[in-house]
Amino acid sequence: MEEVFDKLHEECGVFGIYRKNGKTGVIPDAYHAMYALQHRGQESCGIAVNTDGVLHCHKDVGLLTDVFTKEVLEKLPEGRMAVAHCLYGTKATKNRDNAQPMLVNYRKGALALCNNGVLTNAHQLREELADGGAIFHTTSDAELIAFLIAQERLKADSIEQAVATAMERMYGAYSLVMMSPTKLIAARDPNGFRPLCMGERDGDIIFASESCALDAIGASFVRDIRPGEVVVVSEDGVTTLECSRKAQSALCVFEFIYFARPDSIIEGSSVHMARRRAGAFLALEHPVQADVVIGVPDSGLDAAMGYAQQSGIPYGIGFIKNKYIGRTFIQPTQTERANSVRIKLNAVRSTVEGKRVVLVDDSIVRGTTSAHIVSLLREAGAKEVHMRMSSPPFRHMCYFGTDIGSVDNLIAAKHSVEEICRIIGADSLGFLNVDYLPMLADQSHCGFCSGCFTGNYPVEPPCECHQPRCERPLSQSKE
Amino acid sequence: MEEVFDKLHEECGVFGIYRKNGKTGVIPDAYHAMYALQHRGQESCGIAVNTDGVLHCHKDVGLLTDVFTKEVLEKLPEGRMAVAHCLYGTKATKNRDNAQPMLVNYRKGALALCNNGVLTNAHQLREELADGGAIFHTTSDAELIAFLIAQERLKADSIEQAVATAMERMYGAYSLVMMSPTKLIAARDPNGFRPLCMGERDGDIIFASESCALDAIGASFVRDIRPGEVVVVSEDGVTTLECSRKAQSALCVFEFIYFARPDSIIEGSSVHMARRRAGAFLALEHPVQADVVIGVPDSGLDAAMGYAQQSGIPYGIGFIKNKYIGRTFIQPTQTERANSVRIKLNAVRSTVEGKRVVLVDDSIVRGTTSAHIVSLLREAGAKEVHMRMSSPPFRHMCYFGTDIGSVDNLIAAKHSVEEICRIIGADSLGFLNVDYLPMLADQSHCGFCSGCFTGNYPVEPPCECHQPRCERPLSQSKE
Amino acid sequence: MEEVFDKLHEECGVFGIYRKNGKTGVIPDAYHAMYALQHRGQESCGIAVNTDGVLHCHKDVGLLTDVFTKEVLEKLPEGRMAVAHCLYGTKATKNRDNAQPMLVNYRKGALALCNNGVLTNAHQLREELADGGAIFHTTSDAELIAFLIAQERLKADSIEQAVATAMERMYGAYSLVMMSPTKLIAARDPNGFRPLCMGERDGDIIFASESCALDAIGASFVRDIRPGEVVVVSEDGVTTLECSRKAQSALCVFEFIYFARPDSIIEGSSVHMARRRAGAFLALEHPVQADVVIGVPDSGLDAAMGYAQQSGIPYGIGFIKNKYIGRTFIQPTQTERANSVRIKLNAVRSTVEGKRVVLVDDSIVRGTTSAHIVSLLREAGAKEVHMRMSSPPFRHMCYFGTDIGSVDNLIAAKHSVEEICRIIGADSLGFLNVDYLPMLADQSHCGFCSGCFTGNYPVEPPCECHQPRCERPLSQSKE
Amino acid sequence: MEEVFDKLHEECGVFGIYRKNGKTGVIPDAYHAMYALQHRGQESCGIAVNTDGVLHCHKDVGLLTDVFTKEVLEKLPEGRMAVAHCLYGTKATKNRDNAQPMLVNYRKGALALCNNGVLTNAHQLREELADGGAIFHTTSDAELIAFLIAQERLKADSIEQAVATAMERMYGAYSLVMMSPTKLIAARDPNGFRPLCMGERDGDIIFASESCALDAIGASFVRDIRPGEVVVVSEDGVTTLECSRKAQSALCVFEFIYFARPDSIIEGSSVHMARRRAGAFLALEHPVQADVVIGVPDSGLDAAMGYAQQSGIPYGIGFIKNKYIGRTFIQPTQTERANSVRIKLNAVRSTVEGKRVVLVDDSIVRGTTSAHIVSLLREAGAKEVHMRMSSPPFRHMCYFGTDIGSVDNLIAAKHSVEEICRIIGADSLGFLNVDYLPMLADQSHCGFCSGCFTGNYPVEPPCECHQPRCERPLSQSKE
Questions:
Q1: pLDDT tens string B71-89
Q2: What is the C-alpha to C-alpha distance for residues D117 and D142, in angstroms, rounded to an integer?
Q3: Given CB atoms, is C95 within the 8 Å cutoff of chain D?
Q4: Beta bridge partners of C59
Q5: pLDDT, tens digit (0-9, with 9 covering 90-100), for A83-136
Q6: Rounded CA Rg of chain B
Q7: C residues 197-226 lying closer than 8 A (beta carbon) to D
Q8: What are the pLDDT digits (tens) for C219-251?
Q9: What pTM was estimated for this model as a whole?
């Protein structure tokens, strides 16, 4: 289901384009690509364009279509390079200052930087920089990274060398796309937590969080950026270098389960097929006698189809989602009669009335939405409701970019499967076994991070007292 | 597919509520219900509320969530009755003045009126009224209807009698919900072209274009308003009277094929099931050897599922629709590389690559969108594309509320099926046979209008020179 | 002082232009002219343009610069004729529906109508029309007038004849500018309550409420429209006819005292000079020993200068008005320390400290603002404050367009001059004697209405039970 | 005259408040005070508030009333301290990033900083900081100053000591108001180029650019901040320290001539009286036989009054300024008939017709506006027009905060007085002699900068190649 419900949140989408032979026209590309990546972040967005070495940036809080109005698009200059970003943003980052691209000036000129991820040593880096007399305008990791690159650049031979050296000081998840007056650079953390791929179109080079952004602008997929790799595009073509620090491959498995778009290909595997496989595995592990399999729109539909196909139980359309759902929907005060789930979803009575229903969703966070959905089905006449989740129980903090606020928000951290089943009012409940996770992306050779299910993380998490992000407002009581 | 594509357009959605025993709190109900009916009209919307006999109205151009902001909702007074409206609007009606409810004052006080439909004798009525010294502020049929009611009310014993008498002078399609200081009234034209149903919740009476609006506010379906019927709700309860003119039952069959929401029940039949049946009939009539059946999101999905089930060919997800599609999307100028269909839809390569694909959509208007969609499938590797339409070829003007502009816009009015197949680039093309139409809504006892397919209309269409709507701006050269 | 204070309110400004020989380009003229007339109404505004016989109108609530944004101006078609309007609006009329020009269609085509004034028999006219089956969309007199013209036009030979006949049925104040597909028409009530003049520029004919609008577009003043006159401009040139009903000339004297712009010439007299004369008369009638004469910005300045000149006491700048005063100023809650007058005005200490001050303002309504201003002077060190008003005490209702809400709002209706002096905290207080009023506009040959000072009205006021404007919302409990 | 004409531009207004005993309620004070200082900067504005040691800031491009809407004001938390800023902004600074207060975090917590002025060594400071690995988010001096303070704070015992030490490294004009979690600090450059004063209200301490802001919130003037002084307000009361670098006193004389509000008192002298004295000196030096003295609204009025009084020629109102002039006024394309000056000003014919007119303005920049104004007077019938300027000819660059773009914009840098007289079409032209400048502010003991008239600057101007402000976008071609 959607971000308007009780769902997990991805942090960001990033994009960059370098057009060949000085051709311009990158603004429409950036706009269309970010439109395709909008699901990765709805809090703020921005585009920076490189016009003959001068960088211009427009960014603001809001969806792409809110921020980039006709007037704004007309005023933006054109150029041969652009980087762009969309951000989900936690409560602490939800303000205009943290929007990206982050455009800064330093010893060697301007730099526009976009990041998807979270540094686990952000607190230590911030302290170090402050001890050297730094001032911070934001609470964003992107500012820390820009500072590190600016410092390394004083010693390094090139911006890309500075990036590679800076990466040795950065721990955690980051997929970077950045632009100097003359170069476009992409880099991915040594674990490869978040996806980042490269595409090509008539000689133009494109970087994007997901391949669906390449499709949107008519580019073809070239390859994924390797963990720890720095790719540089300039007049001299595409070159690559590696961060010297190595680490185990650990792609976030939730990219396949929920975050990414089904039409994207990540590390060689189709997201859509991975979800169908999840549904099929669920059917094998948690079979049930039933009349129809339905999915919770939209993210449960693929797995539901996989469940139906494997089990032989017919697939049906159980819910109609109101397609005008948007961020501006006002919930008038007198809402006891019309809860917010009902307004977004309506059960299709002819599909479920008198039936034993298998209801497939991708994951469960607080559990309140699931309870509402189960009750909508019962109101519409479902005889039995068997809930199936296409992921294991979400029980542990994520330190690499999935925002859950606090472990206290996770129903699976506090309750057994049986208890959850009772709380949401289902007749039975089954989760995908964690052992199946590596098998979802059947064409991928990377490793996966499943720390949120198991508590085993590929990188040391930050200690309790230093949370990964500085969530404090811009002040403290020292002075 | 959606209204952002090359699609047919419904005219309007209407709603009314009368709360029992003077209870107030009708604004949230109207807001939620219109949100559920938003698919019936996106041009403008409005809500009128009755506060102790005084009528207040807010309406404007835009979607419900644009027009009814938090600030507007807070300023609207509450009341025990409300009527509400959303309008698609043709080019001529696309302005604030034509937004409804139409709130007027006349001899007997105020009247707030909402209409879904088109009068075929609007031109004659306008001439008659003008000859009597009338002035018109709008080009809307609702204003004509209000004038007729005001005139009849001078002679009639009650507002409902005035409505019934006025109906004798009105030809064409109209589903009305209106509100006087003390009464809520619903009326439907003698042919019953457009749907209108009644619901109930704890004694409150509700009227709505579709039953999905009842679900949205926790009300239960009572019955459809009968063609020619006038239903009145007041302190004395619910009473009914009939227009003296009788006509053949002729519900617009496109309500089942495309306009209505799949979770609505119209004249006793599930819209979702009617679409699956359409798909099944298509499979019987136009079978093909293929590997996968996919639908064009969203309105082709139900029929695709019916086709798959009947044919035994697996159902698949062929396209991902960008869920941030909205009215504010800007098409930057440099768009040759990224056509507008590609931005809204992306093919799922893993579903269609190397496959023979059956592609199901609900209807074809100009054909340009279909051509784009077929080519997206071919780019994604589909070996064959067999297009199936869950309605007959649309060849004739509609005079009862479906806006097609001109017959010249209809590809099927100018080309044979074979020609269309070639134009859109499909390997084969099949339309639903018109004989199947009465069988789609298998639980319904009403008749259907299929004039747009056959050219046979249940009511005399207006003569050529007097088009059903006055599309002219508010002027003419007489003076 | 300004409309943001406790001041009287004018009802409207009207404008019309007919360009010679089919030249277009009337939108900039209408825009500039209305900008010059903005002081006559800040509630809503609108422009209607005649493009080859087709009338287009844009109007909305707000100032000209709010309503006519760049985007709106670019979308408006051009034409050879335009009419325009700005409206102050009472509480009852403060909504978008009452904005003018009122654009309607009737038997003979379109009509766009602008009015400045108030009909005293509006209630009776509304009843008559309703008895004939009329419906009303607004509570505006302009709608009544349009109805009357539409009815008379059925019998009359021309639109101008219909206007002249309709005028026989209308009582009270009205200055009309209206446009048919081929003609521009101006008309003024038989008493001539509100100003209306004609100008000329290279053969183009212009009508405007005040001559300052002519200056704004480079036109020269031709003459005032006579009371009871109807002036028609068409391809055949300018013609004139007279309403058959005659009445005594009764221009509102407040136009000279406060409403009109000082740079306007009305009925041959300079408004600026009239105000200086008022100040001079005040000095003769209410002399005082003092050190400096200051005016309340902006409308008291001219009279203060006249007082200074006549008395020989030096004129000084006593207050600085904040020039960013606008309608959007937010008064945060915690305002006890900074009252709203202080925010708009600040005393110039160097002018008033230790001085005996003569403070001149144009009129006093509630008295609260005067009290604040006197206290600002005392805080700034003024030794004595002698208040002088350049109009007589405002004691009676105005039925002809000056909105005071209720006589209860008038301090002079309830208190003697001595009491008022004490309430506002002045050392002395003097009002202009009513006998001087006819002498202010020394070049004018018209009569004046001074009903608000004397209670003697040139036209029968409406009876108590039928207030001149229907202030009720669009409803009543009859039905 | 106003900022909408061809006028000089001040850079900024600053404000700060520290309430006694932990009382809150500083937002309305900041809002009202900035409203009074709006004339010092219309490009952007902001308020930062200190809520129990946590700093919150809202700022944006636009006027105060645009940026601080009701909704924004309601969301801002309250506190016991606030700082606020308005900025005129040159072309380079006209963006949201350069808006102030500048809120940053550093080793010792948060700092919110507001500056009025321009550093002459900004370029060198920027180079130094960049060499140390700094990154810059803006092109604003305020960011440089924040960096210097953050660096000095690492060594200093207190924030105020850090400010005083940082000031030794800063050359040029700056009036600073800043806030740490516990202190409010004001500082003024050693030359005292820009005004900055302290006020008091029931124990609350206030800093503001001009005393009119104190009046707006009911505070009383205490004293001016001394050049080179740092004033600190904390729980321990008000303390003061001095920057060790000394320099000659050099207040910008244009503060008296044009920038400041007439109701302000700067360095002990009334701005209003200084302008009257300028007019009186003009009358002595450039007498003429004439019938009336008029001023160009608003800034020429005081000097005109002084000229009239000294010369004995009657003072008159020569122009009416449209009081709805705002930033959103659209100039429709077809403007040849209505030039932009005519729209803002209209001559009062009764004042000038047939007269010999002395026209007083404060200064002349390009000369185009003056030419228009002279021609408006001639159109209105003036027989002679004698222009008098209450300042000497503006011939040289200002490096301390008055934005003139380029010396090429200055008519007086390229033409003699006789030539200018001919260009603007006046009958005679006289400027104030530079020798009179020190006598305008007769109560002040400070020195004055008159570099823009004489070319002699109290501080070494930046060399040609290093302009005082980095006007380049955030990029350069080094990388």
A1: 899 899 999 999 999 998 6
A2: 9
A3: no
A4: C46
A5: 999 998 665 555 778 899 999 999 999 999 999 999 999 999 999 999 999 999
A6: 23
A7: 201, 212, 215-218
A8: 999 999 999 999 999 999 999 999 999 999 999
A9: 0.91
Residues 6+ apart with CB under 8 A from C286: C388, C428, C430, C431
Contact flag B328-A65 (C-beta cutoff 8 Å): yes
Closest-CA residue to A316 (of B359, B263, B355, B210):
B263
CA distance A68 to A62: 9
- The DSSP line for C293-340 is EEE-TTTTHHHHHHHHHHH-PPB---EEE-TT--TT----S--TTS-H
Q: Do B216 and A302 touch (CB under 8 A)?
A: no
Q: Alpha helix locations (H) across C217-263?
A: 254
Number of H helices, E strands in chain C: 17, 23
Query: What digits encode the pLDDT tens for the residues B386-416?
Result: 999 999 999 999 999 887 778 888 999 999 9
CB B25 to CB A298 under 8 A?
A: no
**Would you place residue D340 in the very low, low, confident or very high pLDDT band (cuts 50, 70, 90)?**
confident
- Residue D444's contacts (CB-CB under 8 Å, 6 or more residues apart) are D251, D266, D267, D268, D269
pLDDT, residue B462, reads 83
By residue count, chain A amounts to 479
| Chain pair A-D, CB pairs under 8 angstroms | 134
Does C232 contact chain B (CB < 8 Å)?
Answer: no
D454 inside 8 A of chain C by CB: no
Residues of D in contact with A134 (CB under 8 A): 106, 134, 150
Neighbours of chain B (3+ CB pairs under 8 A): A, C
The gap between the terminal CA atoms of chain D, to the nearest Å, is: 46
Note whether C151 contacts B: Cβ–Cβ < 8 A.
yes
Q: Are the C-beta atoms of A343 and A321 separated by less than 8 Å?
A: no
Describe chain A by its helix, strand, coil percentages, rounded to 5. 30, 25, 45
Q: Does position D368 have pLDDT exceeding 90, yes or no?
A: no
Half-sphere exposure of B146 (CA within 13 A, CB side): 35
Q: Is D122 on the interface with C (CB under 8 A)?
A: no
User: Which among D95, D115, D93, D102 is positioned nearest to D12, based on CA atoms?
Assistant: D115
Q: Do C330 and D217 touch (CB under 8 A)?
A: no
Q: Is B326 on the interface with C (CB under 8 A)?
A: no
State whether residue D474 sits within 8 Å of chain A by CB: yes
Q: CB distance D135–A104 less than 8 Å?
A: yes
Question: Is the CB of B475 less than 8 angstroms away from the CB of C182?
Answer: no
Count how many pairs of residues, chain A against chain B, have C-beta atoms within 8 Å.
171
- Residues of chain C contacting B181 with CB distance shorter than 8 Å: 475-479
Q: How far apart are alpha carbons A38 and A142 in whole angstroms?
A: 19
**Is D12 a residue of the active site?**
yes
Which residues on chain C are in Cβ contact (under 8 Å) with B475? 53-55, 105, 109-110, 181
Say yes or no to pLDDT of A180 above 50.
yes
Length, in residues, of chain C: 479
Give phi and psi for D349, each to the nearest 5: -55, -40
Predicted local confidence at residue C96, as pLDDT: 78
Chain D neighbors (3+ CB pairs < 8 Å): A, C
| Burial class of residue A214 (count of CB atoms within 10 Å of its CB; 0-12, 13-18, 19+) | buried
> How does pLDDT run across B146-160, given as a tens digit for each residue?
999 999 999 999 999
Side chain identity at residue C408, one-letter code:
D
pLDDT of residue B409: 84
CA dist., res. A384 & res. A364, Å (int):
20
